Amino acid sequence: MRALVGAAVFGGALLVTLGLTAPHLARASPALLVSTLAGCVAVAALAAQPWLTRRRVPAHVRLGGVVAVLVAVHVLALVVESPDDALYSMSPDGPTRARMALFATVLLAVVTLLGLLRRRLRWSAPTWRFVHGSLAGLVVVLGVGHAVLIQGALDGWGTPVLLALGGLGVVGVVVRLVMVLRTGDAMPHDRGRVRPAGERPG
Amino acid sequence: MVAVALLVAVIAAALWRSDESGTGARNVGVEAAAPAAGPAAPQAPLAVPGVPGATCPPTVTNPGGRNNYRENAPLDVPLGRGLVITGVVRDTGCRPLPGVPVQVWLQTALGSERENRTTVLTGPDGRYRVASDPAVAQFGEPNVHVAHDPEDGPWASVWQRHVVDPDATLAVVDLTLVPAS
């Protein structure tokens, strides 16, 4: 588990290095630079997130907040860079890659809200985990897919690194969802909301 | 689980129905050797020049066409070399329109869309031509903007945004104008 999180951190460092050395950003404005780097770190954090859900829940929660902030910075910096292009990209007439980013951003907001409202929702732990996890999986697919389709700073070696990080995140989500569907995936902090597999109702 | 599957289907359908480069934008680039400077512009034949009764569909402003537009671009300023943006301006009778102002703007390695712009006039054959440095990706894809933008001319304004490949040397954007009402 620790090795997989380490791989995500390494991938994020690679993306940041590739972005900083890319000719595309050589004369870029500070806003575009900030936006690109925030996106790079967010992708790496998303790849690590599912691998933290089993034994590092506090870290998962904190990193989830960091991802939400990074994506907000990414979008706001693009609006500062070019309001016309940013609003066009977020409109129904925007390119496919921008539509993917828009869906990913909205779903990320929903996933974050689900995390914040977990106690109030009073869903069973497996139900909450399935909804939260499957929507988070969509965020990874759409977010990384959008980054792969973008031409610019992460062309060339950036594409396989992005795909590897996306694959790491998706595999993590699938592994976790399978555990939830098979066993209910009881954890110590569930406080009796999930019966461990094999335990009879008393 | 059904709700999540439904959501995935809705997102997939929305992506499937979207235009890859944005609504109404098409790849107008050509990766052919084109002269980067000088008066010898590539001369594409007009579709149906001078044919009585011929009609050309009017060009419609596409979404994103006005992105980063600014009025009063400097007249006939060279924007570099490596990419030629050209096209023919016609009326709906397919007749070429000489002396019509056309503004072109695009992002290159040296300038943003807000800085890298010029207005040129069409020649006797209705053709305009702008030499520029190659377009670089702006919000994920290299794109060029072409507009007929005077507010008080005889022809209605129109704005276009299209995309090119990074190694394109020629971009062709024709305009068919309708009289200003």
Automatic annotation (TrEMBL), chain A:
InterPro entries reported in the protein's UniProt record: Fe3_Rdtase_TM_dom
Top-level taxon in the UniProt lineage: Bacteria
Localization, UniProt: Membrane
TM regions (residue ranges): 31-48, 60-80, 100-118, 130-149, 161-181
Pfam families in alphabetical order: Ferric_reduct
Record domain Ferric oxidoreductase: where: 48-142
Membrane topology field: Multi-pass membrane protein
Keywords: Membrane, Transmembrane, Transmembrane helix
Primary location recorded for the protein, binned into one broad class: membrane
Keyword Membrane included in the entry's annotation: yes
Extent of the signal sequence: none
Name the record gives this protein: Ferric reductase-like transmembrane domain-containing protein
Natural source organism: Actinomycetospora aeridis
